[in-house]
Amino acid sequence: MLIDPETTAAVLAVAGVCLLSAAPWLLADLELEDVAAAMMRVAEGMARSGL
Fold first, then answer.
1. Pure H helices in 1-51
2. For position 5, what pLDDT does the model report?
3. Potential cystine with 46: which of 23, 39, 41, 51 (Cβ 3.0-4.6 Å)?
4. Phi/psi class of residue 50: alpha, beta or left (left: φ > 0; alpha: ψ in -120 to 50)?
5. How far apart are CA 33 and CA 6, in angstroms?
Protein backbone atom coordinates (compact mmCIF):
# COMPACT_ATOMS: atom_id res chain seq x y z
CA MET A 1 0.00 0.00 0.00
CA LEU A 2 1.45 3.32 -1.08
CA ILE A 3 1.26 6.13 1.46
CA ASP A 4 1.57 9.69 0.19
CA PRO A 5 4.14 11.49 2.40
CA GLU A 6 2.55 14.92 1.88
CA THR A 7 -0.87 13.63 2.89
CA THR A 8 0.60 11.86 5.90
CA ALA A 9 2.39 15.03 7.03
CA ALA A 10 -0.79 17.07 6.61
CA VAL A 11 -2.85 14.56 8.59
CA LEU A 12 -0.26 14.51 11.39
CA ALA A 13 -0.17 18.30 11.49
CA VAL A 14 -3.96 18.59 11.66
CA ALA A 15 -4.12 15.89 14.34
CA GLY A 16 -1.49 17.72 16.38
CA VAL A 17 -3.34 21.02 16.15
CA CYS A 18 -6.61 19.34 17.12
CA LEU A 19 -4.96 17.62 20.07
CA LEU A 20 -3.38 20.83 21.33
CA SER A 21 -6.58 22.84 20.94
CA ALA A 22 -8.83 20.17 22.45
CA ALA A 23 -6.65 19.30 25.44
CA PRO A 24 -4.74 22.35 26.71
CA TRP A 25 -4.40 20.68 30.11
CA LEU A 26 -1.82 18.36 28.52
CA LEU A 27 0.52 21.34 28.36
CA ALA A 28 -0.16 22.55 31.90
CA ASP A 29 2.81 20.69 33.39
CA LEU A 30 5.16 21.25 30.46
CA GLU A 31 7.48 24.18 29.95
CA LEU A 32 7.32 25.94 26.59
CA GLU A 33 10.90 24.87 25.87
CA ASP A 34 9.94 21.23 26.37
CA VAL A 35 7.08 21.56 23.89
CA ALA A 36 9.31 23.30 21.34
CA ALA A 37 12.00 20.63 21.75
CA ALA A 38 9.46 17.85 21.27
CA MET A 39 8.10 19.52 18.13
CA MET A 40 11.64 19.87 16.76
CA ARG A 41 12.31 16.16 17.39
CA VAL A 42 9.12 15.27 15.51
CA ALA A 43 10.08 17.56 12.62
CA GLU A 44 13.59 16.08 12.47
CA GLY A 45 12.17 12.56 12.47
CA MET A 46 9.78 13.45 9.67
CA ALA A 47 12.63 14.98 7.67
CA ARG A 48 14.78 11.87 8.12
CA SER A 49 11.95 9.60 7.05
CA GLY A 50 11.22 11.69 3.98
CA LEU A 51 7.99 13.29 5.16
1. 5-22, 32-48
2. 78
3. 51
4. left
5. 27
The proportion of the chain whose per-residue pLDDT surpasses 70, expressed as a percent, equals: 69
Quote the CA–CA distance of 37 and 33 in Å, as a whole number: 6
The answer to pTM > 0.85 is: no
CB 32 within 8 A of CB 40: no
Q: Can you say whether the dihedral through the CA atoms of 48, 26, 28, 11 is positive or negative?
A: positive
Position 18: which residue type?
C
d(CA 48, CA 35): 20
Is there a contact between 18 and 10 (Cβ–Cβ < 8 Å)?
Answer: no
Distance CA 32, CA 51 (A): 25
Is residue 48 a contact partner of residue 5, using CB atoms and an 8 Å limit? no
